[in-house]
Amino acid sequence: MKKIKELTTDYHTRDILAGIDMTGSFKELFRQAAITPHSIFLLCVRGSCKISIHLTRYEMSAGSLAIIFPGVYFQILEQTPECRFMYIGIAQRALENTYLFSQTLEYTHRILEQPVLRLPPEISKIFMDGFMAVIRTTRLKQDLLNDMQIGLLYTQFVTTAYNASPLNTPGKSDSHYSRNREIVKELVRHIIQYYKKERNVAFYAEKMHLSPQHLSTTVKKVTGKTLTDLISSFIIRDAQAKLRSTEMTIQEIAYSLNFSDISFFGKYFKRYTGMSPKKYRNAGDV
User: Fold this and answer.
1) In which band, very low, low, confident or very high, does the pLDDT at 94 lie, cut at 50, 70 and 90?
2) For residues 146 and 80, what is the distance between their CA atoms, to the nearest angstrom?
3) Which stretches within the chain are classed as H helix?
4) What is the C-alpha R_g of the chain?
5) Residue 53, strand partner residues
6) Region at 77 (left for phi over 0; alpha for psi -120 to 50; beta for the rest)
7) CA 63 to chain CA mean position, Å
8) Arithmetic mean of pLDDT, 58-75
9) Mean pLDDT, the chain, integer
10) Residue 242: pLDDT over 60
11) Which residue has the higher pLDDT, 128 or 36?
C-alpha cells in the first residue's frame, strides 16, 4: 500500500477519503504537529499510541475513536509497532451550509473537550463495519457519495459515538431543557464563526435576539460554564496552538484574534492559563 498522502493532496478533487493504514504511515504523516484542514475520524484497530490534539495529549488503543475538527493541530507522539488505523477524512466544503451539520452542533463542545472516545466492543465493531463500507465505496471508480450522503455519514458517526460512549450522560428530556440546548447549539455555531473577531457577550446575545442575562443564565444551566468562559475557550485554544506550533510572533497572534493591544492580549491569556504568552511558548521547549 502506498504511503498515505491523500489527506493533504487529494481533497482538491474529492470530498471524502477513507482507508486502512496498512504500513503505519500515519505516524510519518503526523510526526510533526500539523493543522488538519479537514474533519478526520481515526479508529484505532490494533496496538496503541499517544497523540496530541490541539496540544492536549491522549492515549488510544484498539477500539478508540478520535474525531478531529478542521483547523486543529494534530500529532502522533508515540505508537507501538503494530499500531494501525482506519480513517475517514471529510472535506469541510462537503459539510458547510447543510442542515445535517447543524444537527451535530450540540456535540461540538463535547468533541473539543473530549475528542478521543473509548468505544464499547460492540460499538467498535459497528464502526469498523461502517468504516469498511465507506472505504469500499470510495474505492469504486464512480462517485457514489454526494454532499447529502457525506453529511449523513458525518452525523451518524458523531451522534452514535457520543451517545454510545460510556462518558455520555443522558440529558433531560423536558421541553424547557430541550429549548435551552437549542439555544446553546445556536450559540456555539455563532462562536465558531465569530470568536476571532468578537469576544463581547452582548454581540452574541444580539445575534440570537436574547438579553445578555438570559443567554448567560441558559449557558450556565446547560454547560456549567459562564458565557464568557465558553467564548474564551475557543480563543485560548487557538492562541495556545499558534504559540506552540507556529512561528507567528505574539503580536501577530494577538492581531489574528482581534486584540489591538498586545498588552491586553497578554493579560487576557494569563487570566485563563496562569502564564504569559511568552512563558507558555517557552514552556513547550522544555
Assistant:
1) confident
2) 37
3) 6-9, 25-29, 99-102, 108-113, 121-139, 147-164, 175-194, 201-207, 212-223, 227-245, 250-256, 262-273, 277-283
4) 20
5) 56, 74
6) alpha
7) 19
8) 89
9) 83
10) yes
11) 128
Q: Which of 84, 249, 86, 108 is nearest to 186 (CA)?
A: 108
DSSP-assigned letter for residue 260: S
144-202: per-residue pLDDT in tens?
888 778 888 888 899 899 888 765 444 444 555 578 878 887 888 888 889 999 999 99
Look up residue 266 and give its three cell numbers: 497578554
Number of continuous H segments (helices) and E segments (strands) in the chain: 13, 9
Distance CA 50, CA 263 (A): 36
pTM, full prediction? 0.63
Pairing mode, strands 64-68 and 39-46: antiparallel
pLDDT of residue 168: 45
The 3-class SS string of 138-161 reads HHCCCCCCCHHHHHHHHHHHHHHH
DSSP assignment letter at 153: H
Closest CA to 254 of 15, 244, 243: 243
Q: Are 11 and 38 in contact (CB under 8 A)?
A: yes
Q: What amino acid is encoded at 60 in this protein?
A: M
Helix axes 212-223, 175-194, angle to 10 degrees: 110
Residue 193, all three cell numbers? 464563526
Tell me the C-alpha distance between 21 and 44, whole Å. Answer: 10
